[in-house]
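Protein modeling request. Please complete all fields; requests missing the sequence field cannot be processed.
Requester role: graduate student
Desired output: 3D structure, token encoding
Chains: 1
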Amino acid sequence: MLKQRAKQSSPPIQMCDALSRNVPKLTAGVEILLANCLAHGRRQFLEVAENFPDECRYVLEMLGQVYGHDAEARAQALTPEERLRFHQQRSGPVMDQLYGWLEAQFAERKTEPNSGLGKAITYLLRHWRPLTLFLRVAAAPLDNNIVERALKRAVLHRKNALFYRTLNGAQVGDLFMSLIHTCQLCGANSFDYLAELQRHARELAATPAEWMPWNYRQTLERAGV
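Delivered output (225 residues):
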């Protein structure tokens, strides 16, 4: 699929956690930009915070500033390029300071590398470049949370699918799962949306592009409904 990507397009960003099996073996001429999930790195410190409260609090507060800056960028509806510059100005110094602190824990023998805190620090240091791609590439996300939340719905649907009696029933269930999740992503009421599709089945069949979760309300307004 990557070979079929338009030649003039920039390399796609692959966001994932740092498991080695998540990185594909690429053939010649194919390139990706690897971004690792900052939420996974943060979680390493949450898991050992009870044993290392002061150190973990520092790391979590520093990462909290970065997430705060990302929320500001979304609130201001910044373009990818504007968001990149915003993070470079605001989050760059924070991440530089954090990196220096992480290195000092080992260099100054403040933290045992084999301890829970040491392993959390090692994770961040080992994957620092893909964890900080958002400071170098426009539109690079901080984490993979949006995909992981979507996957949880697929896993739940997979469990529910055990009770479908036919293959067609399972395919219909797949369709509804996709529609409901799309409604949630674009802020539409999924129950209202599905009800309107039933009420306007004839119009839907004629012009399906006008009955998407993100534009069906405008279609209803144009029709005076």
